[in-house]
Amino acid sequence: MNQTKMGFCQIHLDFHTSPAIPDVASQFDARRFAMLAKAVHVDSITVFAKCHHGHLYFNTRHPARHPALPRGFDLLRRQVDALHAEGIRAPIYISVLFDEFAARNHPDWVAVKPDGGRWDAEPFGAGWHFLDMSSPYRQYLTEQILEIVETFRPVDGVFFDICGDIPSASRYAKEAMTVLGLDPQSEQDRNAFAHRLGLDYMREFHAIVKQSSPEATVHFNSRPLTFLPEDIAYLTHVEVEALPTGGWGYMYFPTNVRYIRTFARPYVGMTARFHKSWGDFGGLKPEAALRHEVCQMLAHGARCSIGDQMHPRGTLDAPAWEAIGRVYGYAQQCRPWCEDAVSAADTALVRPTGGGTYHVPAGGAWDGATRLLMHIKQQFDVVDPGHDLSRYRLLILPDEIAVSAAFARALDRFVARGGAVLATGASGLDAAGRPVWKALPIRGVAEPSPFTVTYLEPARGLRGELPAMPCALYEKGWRVRAAAGAEVLATVTEPYFERSWRHFCSHAQTPPAKATRFAAAAIKDRVAYIAYPIFRLFGTHGHLPYRGLVAACLRRLVGRPMVEIAAPARTEVSVMRKGRATVVHVLYAAPDHRNGLDIVEDIVPLRDVALSLALPRKPARALLAPSREPLPLAWAEGRAEVTIPCVDGHQMVVFE
């Protein structure tokens, strides 16, 4: 069986099993396994051919076959055949850069750090080593892949894991770099070679799979999503691994899915049933958290994947799968309004450069912008500077967006067509503070502020929207003067002096002295500028006046937002298009922060939630989904208005 359609409710089933485990698959029952999958509404399970330990789980003469797997027992074949018998896809998992069997038998294949140490695992540490793809390991792995795809031909798909760029200073890497004219002593050249090598083996492995099984799905995991513009050629779809308690946090998925969905590929959200992260045997996530995470995926048009790890004996934890069944039962009810839905966003947030790591840390401009815009319910995608902007009415350049001459021309065309732009911080400025994009509503050169902390003083017209007091700006911004004809929305008040050992006042920053003529925020025509990295400040400090200032700028640029809702700031709202219908997802959860983990334990319902949505024409009706219960609908000034009786964690409102 080979299905070309992606699974909607998937399981990613880890099986990283030590060679020291003696009773591998001793209790595995293929029929029970498939029936359990069927019972929990699963239509795809990723099963293991090769794990991080480097062992294989099918009948092969390769010495890496798991030593405790009984002779003649083909675990992978039994899993694939049992799932196929129930109409369930069975993509195959292959570990790429982690292979402890190869690292142990061929230590010269392990990637080498510039100081001569081996990548990642310490001499007495319990952990993985990164293999060097410029060593003979690549041929070793290629032969394994060829055997797997031919043995199980046609495969439903292949999930390649641990595929990041690992710069190595091994003799193999140095020789290969020298041939290419690169300098192995240069960190920049080592990174460039590692990236080139990653793209090269992705191209090769993608071709191997597709030549064997043309309809197979292919994904390369553990690569920074910022690599997508290059990587997308070798991906049939994108899987967004985002275990909130495993280092990703609850903002990682809603931040990055807005970027991923702008590519012409299906995409999957992946969480897991664990209390913490992968391999957390005995750790069970609250069902409320699992439901919230899956509903986040549904709200953004993603297919769903929940990770688990099968016990070495081949058994699964019944309580975990019972919870998965209830969550996926709800997801399947929502499916008619979610599958193949597309973003209805009217705003584009330009992606800051960098972020070349798999986990993007919280607190930066990207994270802060997502948090702030989600709080004010702005509907936005994340785009690169070269993206087609024609479908958006508003463009946001957060904090650090470099504007090239070509991008400046694109911005001019965008504004000329009626679009609006908000730029903040250093966006649109060169290194010396000169405006690269001439439409910024400032004159002269922007000078870095000499003060670490200054104060935001709202103009008289903003005092109903911002506190009528000097509000602390906790990081440096720019001293700028507004352009002629620009409206100044807020000015800067500076402190008496910079706090230091020479002179300081009270416990924290020096108090405000007097207002200056420097503009904190200015707007002219359809362009607004905030002279501080306001999104990074919000992500780092969470000061609500920052959110109020951005919201005030956007109201003046584009008027009322697409969505208005009477609900707590943490409520997530996502507007999607499904055929001729507009689907509004409303999600509310209140994680409890416990010792570094955000735990969603309880669902707290919201009742009688007023929702207003701008639409191009009056809808014929509004209904709740998946219950299909009709809602009383009002229409005024181009907006559909309803009251949602109850948001029990997640509620869809469909306008048809």
Task: Report what the structure shows.
- This protein has 14 helices and 31 strands.
- The chain is of the alpha/beta class.
- The protein has 3 domains: 1-90 and 237-339, Alpha-Beta Barrel (TIM Barrel), CATH 3.20.20; 347-558, Class I glutamine amidotransferase (GATase) domain (Rossmann fold), CATH 3.40.50.880; 563-655, Golgi alpha-mannosidase II (Immunoglobulin-like).
- The protein has a 9-stranded mixed sheet, with helices on both faces. It has an 8-stranded parallel sheet with strand order 5-4-3-2-1-8-7-6.
- Helix 1 (30-39) links the parallel strand 1 (9-14) and strand 2.
- Helix 1 (30-39) crosses helix 2 (75-85).
- The chain is globular, with a radius of gyration of 27 Å.
**Overall spatial form:** globular
Per CATH, which architecture of the largest domain? 3-Layer(aba) Sandwich
Report how far apart the termini are: 37 Å
Largest sheet: 9 strands, mixed
The gyration radius over C-alpha positions equals 27 Å
How many separate domains make up the residues? 3
Q: Low-confidence stretches at least 5 residues in length (pLDDT < 50)?
A: none
CATH hierarchy, class of the largest domain:
Alpha Beta
CATH topology of the largest domain: Rossmann fold
Tell me the number of strands. 31
Indicate the proportion of strand residues: 25-35%
**Strand order of the biggest β-sheet:** 11-10-12-13-20-19-18-15-16
Structural class: alpha/beta
Determine the number of helices (DSSP H or I, runs of at least 4 residues): 14
At the fourth CATH level, what is the homologous superfamily of the largest domain? Class I glutamine amidotransferase (GATase) domain
> How confident is the prediction overall: mean pLDDT?
95
